[in-house]
Write a structure and sequence with these properties.
binds alpha-D-ribofuranose; about 40% helix; two-stranded antiparallel sheet; 11 strands; alpha/beta; binds calcium ion; globular
């Protein structure tokens, strides 16, 4: 069993990652903490609560940081839609989060289960950075920290140099990358190369049942963004492939321990994850950088999850 905590800025790809975790019998999701990112934090909370309910799961969802540490917040409505879930008319309001702030949950869960938990981060690292500031001891208390963040090839999806999760809160990412936690980074390069779904893939997943239909219908806005902006031939799934690596480390077919630093001052490069592939800095590696994933295994995991039973949810499609 994989005891897991998930920190997410719940939008359309995060939701698929949640479905992967919540429907896998090997995973015991203990808590979900939400952070401002793709959409305002409160909307991310509703999106996560909806997804948990649709999966018939009993997992607490906690509010978290509603803005980056120091910067103005940048949303991603152009990528995921106004509601973050493709604006397809889902009933994404009126659900109650659990008691407790996400930052405190990240601290308490680590202290209650030292060395046991896998933390998966799917959004900006604001919550984790705040937790580290409040309780530096947690740096040694998570078993793994598997992060969708950055780009090992330096190709950004928000600016030429920066991937969204790092771009939104570079100061938070810098704190986490310097923390000494057992970090694993799955960058946008791995998603773009090995986690792209074609329309045929999407149709096949949607046909698996209500969870598959949900997982694919909410990508409506993402199709347009991939076509018009990132030139991805289909839709790429950064958060789901990161979750797949967290559940099955063998999905990462190419990875290496690297020294990685986050740019926080560059006028044109803020949020860049600078990966020392050649070791030219002489600094000790601080992150395991995943650069390729097993697409076939990832797709099989998506099919397995999308074929699971769904609970009836008000407004579910
Ligand atoms: O750059 C992709 C990442 O930014 C994903 O986590 C997506 O959900 C957005 O948060
Ligand atoms: Ca995300």
């Amino acid at each position: 069993m994989i005891p897991m905590v998930i920190d997410t800025d719940t939008a359309s790809d995060d939701a698929v990652a949640l479905v992967l975790a919540l429907t896998d019998p090997r995973v015991d999701v203990r808590a979900i903490t939400v952070v401002a990112g793709n959409v305002p934090m409160e909307m991310g909370v509703q999106n996560a609560l909806y997804t948990v309910q649709l999966c018939g799961a009993d997992v607490p969802v906690h509010v978290g940081a509603d803005r980056p540490l120091v910067r103005e917040h940048v949303f991603a409505h152009e990528v995921h839609g106004q509601d973050g879930m493709g604006d397809v008319g889902l009933a994404l309001t009126g659900r109650e989060p659990a008691e407790g702030h996400g930052v405190d949950v990240l601290i308490e869960m680590a202290r209650q289960h030292p060395g046991e938990l896998t933390l998966v981060t799917l959004g900006p690292l604001t919550n984790l950075a705040l937790a580290l500031r409040k309780a530096p001891d947690i740096a040694g208390l998570y078993k793994r920290v598997v992060m969708m963040i950055g780009a090992a090839d330096g190709l950004g999806n928000v600016t030429p140099a920066a991937e969204f999760n790092a771009y939104v809160d570079p100061e938070a990412a810098d704190i986490v990358f310097r923390s000494g936690m057992p970090l694993e980074m799955v960058g946008w390069d791995a998603s773009r190369q090995d986690a792209v779904l074609s329309s045929a893939d999407s149709d096949a997943l949607a046909a698996r049942g209500p969870l598959g239909e949900f997982a694919m219908v909410i990508q409506r806005q993402l199709w347009e963004f991939c076509r018009e902006v990132t030139n991805v031939d289909g839709i790429d799934m950064p958060d789901p492939v990161t979750m797949a690596v967290a559940i099955e480390p063998g999905v990462a077919t190419e990875a290496a321990d690297r020294y990685v630093v986050v740019e926080t001052r560059g006028q044109h490069t803020s949020g860049a994850t600078v990966v020392d592939h050649l070791g030219v800095t002489g600094n000790e590696p601080n992150v395991r950088v995943v650069t390729h994933a097993d697409r076939d295994r990832f797709l099989a995991m998506l099919h397995e999850a999308c074929g699971q039973a769904a609970a009836v949810v008000g407004g579910a499609r």
